[in-house]
Amino acid sequence: MNSQAIGVFDSGVGGISTLKKLSQLLPNERFIFYGDSLHAPYGDKTPVEVYKLSKAIIEYFITKNVKAVVIACNTATSAAKERLVTECPQLPIIGIEPALKEAIDNEEHNILVMGTKLTMTLPKYQKMVSNYGHTHNIYSVACPGLAEYVESGMTDQRLLAELLDKFLSEYQTKKIESIVLGCTHYPFLENDIRNYFSGKLQFHNGYEGVANHLKNLLQKKNQLTPANVQGKVIFSGSKQEELPYYQQLFDSLT
Description:
Layout: E1 6-10, H1 16-25, E2 31-35, H2 47-63, E3 68-71, H3 74-87, E4 93-95, H4 100-105, E5 110-115, H5 117-121, H6 123-132, E6 137-142, H7 146-151, H8 157-168, E7 178-181, H9 190-196, E8 202-204, H10 207-220, E9 233-237, H11 243-252
Parallel strand pairs: 1-2, 1-3, 2-9, 3-4, 5-6, 5-7, 7-8
Helix pairs in contact: 1-10, 2-3
């Protein structure tokens, strides 16, 4: 198992930002990334639909004999991870969630959380807001259309400006200290979001926590690769024509 690959998946290209962090922390590991761009975005689907799509990808990874899976999608983590872990006890499955706790731990009190409609409405996120909402100002903003914009190639700056105005204009006058990017597509727009606001902002995406969790898990199970050469990243997905775009985005990240 030590030399087997690690599976990483997302509803589309967003999880590539998570994949980059994983490959940087575990440079000798091999990764298989699956992007489900044919069915993107997951954030506008029902929990049952997201579970079925996620389960199909898990079954694909099982055929590839992966040693662990990272759900690099906030929506799929919220809607499907718990059930998938129960159904696949032999396979370690790690998910990513909106990094609200990260902002809280950083002693930020005016926090804007951007995510998909489904992520924002599911009980797990609502419980987090309930736990911290009495001591912090937490603004939850569903942003339908932003993930699709990233999927489409991010070339229409006018459309992006319209979307940011639609979702964020009312928060420009609030004393926002930090922004939680609660969808793995959104970090590709971090500079645009940062420039939309005046003043210094902290951004949180949760990647480092997921990467460290994966590393610790593999260490505990004695499943870190013994290889001392650069590991490979293999791209796959439900739309084969999108794979060059996946590689392009991965290579563009530092």
